[in-house]
Amino acid sequence: MPLTFRLATPADYETLEMLVIDAFGPITWYRTADERFGPLNGRDWRARWETRFARIFETQIVLVGEEGGEVVAIATGTYDAESRLGYVDLLGVAVAHQRKGYGRQMLRGMLEHLKELGAEHAHLECLTTNERGNELYRSEGFEEVARSIRWFIRIP
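The structure corresponding to this sequence follows.
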């Protein structure tokens, strides 16, 4: 079923925050860091995601995907007018609605929004272990240009 898109409002914040935390829980490197090092200063991965999401909501484009009036997906990003480059930061689908093509629709919706702002290229990052995400991006024509490694250490 096709999604409808709109910009998020403050009334969406709580719903979107939970959607993102639930959707990213199985794949986030924040969780991996906790498994190896424990919560950072008493703040577990969920608390750190909440902090990250608060900043995103304040500083980024937050696009909501709805199906039948229910919020089922989110994409966030920014746009650099000087380079005409759009950045897709988060792409998430509510756990109960995954595997229905909503991630693809949401990605296309964000790319269209960025294009309307003037973007000629788009950039996103995805963990190498997120096989479903990487397959989606490849199938939508994204090309891998680099890989990076997240290093972590407990400072003695």
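The mean pLDDT is 95.
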